[in-house]
Amino acid sequence: MILSTNYLSKASVLILSGFFFFSVVANAKEIKTGTAPFSDTKFRIAIFPVENLSGTVAPLKEIRQALTEKLSKQGFQVLGEENLEKFMAKHRIRYVAGLDREIARAFKEEIGIEGVLITSLEFYSETNPPKVALTSRLISTGEAPSILWIDGIGLAGDDSPGILGLGLIEDPKALLEKAMKSMTDSLMRYLLTGRNEGDGRGAKKKFKPKVAYRSPELDPERKYVVAVLPFFNRSERKYAGEILVLHFIRELRRFNNFDVIEPGILRQELLGLRVIMEDGVSLANADAIFSTLNPDVILSGKVIDYQDYQGVWGKPKVDFFTLFIERKSREIVWNSSSYNEGDEGVFFFDRGRVNTAYVMASQMVKWIGKSVAK
Prior knowledge:
Rossmann fold; 2 domains; 9 helices; single chain; seven-stranded mixed β-sheet; 13 strands; six-stranded mixed β-sheet; alpha/beta
């Protein structure tokens, strides 16, 4: 009787295991054969020349070529360089850091491009250990261009040295390849699933603003359309204002509370309004932007310091002010001051050390997004 019971128990387990196995296989087949948002439509992409915000000589053509090859291998149709040059010459396109309405419409109507990939190189150093930081975003074309996907990465060759330095990366090409793989993998996951990745709430406490004010008028259940204005740059780092704008666009989009206006559209409106911001945004400037673009919130600020370093010795520093102006009340609903250095809170074996301004700024901006959205 005991043998019969054991036999029946084992048989039951085998039957259940078999049922579970075939269920998993069936589900796997469903996932594998499921239709991806862009794969069946032969999503056509144009890749703009890389914007160089690093202030130094960098392999810009190689970065663009790597993006082209990786997307082409996945079956996506990438506009050839010759055709892109003809299109840019025809429409006299010199600004490659954004996409305005006219150019977005022309891409769609004239050559059937559905998305434009824009990449900005923030930092590049071949001095050992090498460093690289960049941000890419995919913008839709047509009548209402918008940011479909945005991501970025900052790496240093000594981020994860490991035991006996076995994890060190001393070859700049190897580090750049690692960064490019991370970026293209993220983009491919979006193109194949239609979902953006990441959650803006995982910021480390040491990167929260030193001083901050949050108005009770901010509604955590509401979704805000945000216009991120150029930051006034008081630092010695060229393009620090443009760099910080990209950080805010990327990190705010990780929250469901924010929808960010494409910078190319904002730039087009500012030029049309002849808005000049000598020392930050004025109330008159804010009124003009609210009336034309109709955002819920205007985000602006000042960069006091934005430092990277080359080689082994040094530490990144980031210092900036931020404010949010709400449309209906015309009042400041968020104001903060953020400052951090790469070795804060580091005591033993460089554990927790940050080696690039990119990584540190991302964490600092993420804290602001988390605080505004809470």
